[in-house]
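Bench log, entry 3. Co-assembly request; chain sequences pasted below exactly as received.
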Amino acid sequence: MHLEYFQLVDRIVDLDLGERTITVEAQVPRQNTIFEGHFPGYPLMPGVLLIEAMAQSSGWLLIALTKFERMPFLASVKEAKMRSFVTPGDLLTINVRVVHEGSGYAVTEAKIRVNGELRSNATITFGVIPFPNPELRGHMEAMATRIGFPQQAASHE
Amino acid sequence: MSSTFDQVATIIAETCDIPRDTITPESHAIDDLGIDSLDFLDIAFAIDKAFGIKLPLEKWTQEVNDGKATTEQYFVLKNLCARIDELVAAKSAGA
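Structure output for the full assembly:
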């Protein structure tokens, strides 16, 4: 998890295009300036960053489903629940499934677990549009390689 | 048609917190009801689910942007419901 660059997903563990699901892992750093303020003497991973982690995980799944032709952008978050604290050093396992693929949008359900325990979940809607420029697409492809995106999922058929 | 309209009007009322009795077949979703694009995503999701279809929002938007269609053709509710009925019929025919 590179909080400074807002890159929260460390690796893709499983990607199933048929079932439209993804599982990723994200390691919450033990130390970060965020924890100095949130909160002094009681460091917690901010809930908004948990939502962002679920959104980014969803995003990789949607990019896979569109074969790197489209980029999802966060549109709305519903039913986001922070069920218990996430603390520095926790390893997040994030499961996402696509609930619906509409025309130019998609809806996902995401869950964050730590050691098998559900810590957070949300229903998230994305606008899904063609990559606005080659630079962004190239950047996402490079990041995909870094987090272990299955190459066969990116192939253009 | 009336059944489709009733369902769509209920979806809009519940999704956008608009009084149900202000929604008529002549209402323009954008101009009269003030529904913005983000709220319309929620409506589209609910319609897609309720009718088992996929509203071609991108195609419609493109046609409007290209001047090949007017927003009234897709976003006045009686017209939207007619499009929904067509999509449902096409799906049934293709099933």
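Residues 27 and 76 of chain B are 6 Å apart (CA to CA). Helices of chain B lie at 2-16, 37-51, 57-65, 71-75, 77-94.
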